[in-house]
Write a structure and sequence with these properties.
It is built from three helices and five strands; from the N terminus they run βααββββα. By secondary structure, the chain is α+β, with helices and mostly antiparallel strands. It has one domain: Roll (Thiol Ester Dehydrase, Chain A). The two termini are 23 Å apart.
């Protein structure tokens, strides 16, 4: 199998993300993982598959290495590790200046958009994540972030 697409997603930290300890609340990482994984799906999935399939998070295991603070420029690096029937296993690394501050292993279930039932991930869809040649596309720009998404992409983060 060929190496998977690596999807990069600029993360924007807002005042609401900061907890009583003065750093990003741990629960915020769950929202960021969801945003980054879904953006990855929308980037590589075929249009008809995107319209007919939804993704539901089943499990997240997060290892926090260092805290993140307001003003930090973070980038989420997402890759699909493997597929098993209707499950997809993703790894997401959150980096600041090239340093990993959090790692997330997550399991997602593919769901048919009409029936809302689990749907087996077809070989065609799986191949979208494991291309013959990797994309050289720029990182996903998070339009909701008030800073230019590309400014959050530092040279060491590539």
């Amino acid at each position: 199998m060929t190496p998977p697409h690596l999807h990069t997603f600029a993360v924007c930290i807002t005042d609401d993300d900061i907890d009583f300890m003065g750093h990003v609340n741990n629960a915020v990482y769950l929202r960021w993982v969801q945003d980054a994984v879904i953006a990855h799906w929308r980037r590589v999935g075929p249009a008809e598959a995107i319209a007919s399939h939804l993704w539901i998070a089943l499990k997240h295991e997060i290892t926090y290495r260092k805290p993140a603070y307001l003003g930090d420029k973070l980038v989420a690096h997402v890759r699909l590790d493997r597929v098993r029937r209707e499950s997809a296993f993703f790894e997401t690394l959150f980096k600041r200046c090239g340093e990993v501050i959090a790692e997330v292993q997550s399991r997602w279930c593919c769901v048919d958009a009409s029936s809302r039932s689990p749907a087996r991930i077809s070989r065609d869809i799986e191949q979208c994540f494991f291309p013959e040649q990797s994309l050289s596309a720029p990182p996903e720009i998070n339009r909701a972030c008030p800073v230019d998404g590309m400014s959050a992409m530092l040279p060491d983060d590539r």
